[in-house]
Amino acid sequence: MVIAVRVKPGASRDRVGGRYDGPLGPALVVAVTAPAVDGRATEAVRRSVARALGVRPSAVALRSGAASRDKLFEVDDASPELAHRFRELRDSPP
Fold first, then answer.
1. Span 7-16, mean pLDDT?
2. Cα(50)–Cα(48) distance, rounded to whole angstroms?
3. Domains of the chain, residue spans
4. What does the H/E/C string look like for the chain?
5. CATH placement of domain 2-91
6. Rounded to an integer, what distance in angstroms lies between the CA atom of residue 70 and that of residue 85?
7. N or C: where does the chain have the smaller number of CB atoms within 10 Å of the terminal CB?
8. In the predicted model, is pLDDT for residue 93 greater than 80?
9. What are the backbone angles phi and psi of residue 75, rounded to the nearest 5°?
10. Is 8 exposed, middle or buried (0-12, 13-18, 19+ CB in 10 A)?
11. pLDDT band at 78, cuts 50/70/90?
12. How far from the centroid of its chain's Cα atoms is residue 60's Cα?
């Protein structure tokens, strides 16, 4: 399963939820406290997405967007429950 994510680095707290209609389509908004330096924010987002979806961090891999706020992640789980959980998170109010 491939999911689109909009990253907000340098936030006051980590948070997963909300929708951003961007260049990759409807994306899940993920705010992380990590700065956008040396891939730290991307790694924090990868771990936050895994935790929010209830999968192992190793099951989530960056597919594209290493230097962008708009990223695509691939999740090694195509279960209907995972897709439903993703839509719930994405469509929840920010």
1. 96
2. 5
3. 2-91
4. CEEEEEEECCCCCCEEEEEEEECCEEEEEEECCCCCCCCHHHHHHHHHHHHHHCCCHHHEEEEECCCCCEEEEEECCCCHHHHHHHHHHHHCCC
5. 3.30.1200.10
6. 20
7. C
8. no
9. -110, 125
10. middle
11. confident
12. 9
Cα gap 3→60, rounded to integer Å: 10
Percent of the chain whose pLDDT exceeds 70 = 99
More confident residue, 79 or 94: 79
Residue 12 neighbours by CB distance under 10 Å? 7
Give 51: exposed, middle or buried? Use CB within 10 Å, 0-12, 13-18, 19+. Answer: middle
pLDDT at 9 over 80: yes
Residue 22, strand partner residues: 25
**Is the CB of residue 33 less than 8 Å from the CB of residue 11?**
yes
What's the token pair of residue 45?
């987002």
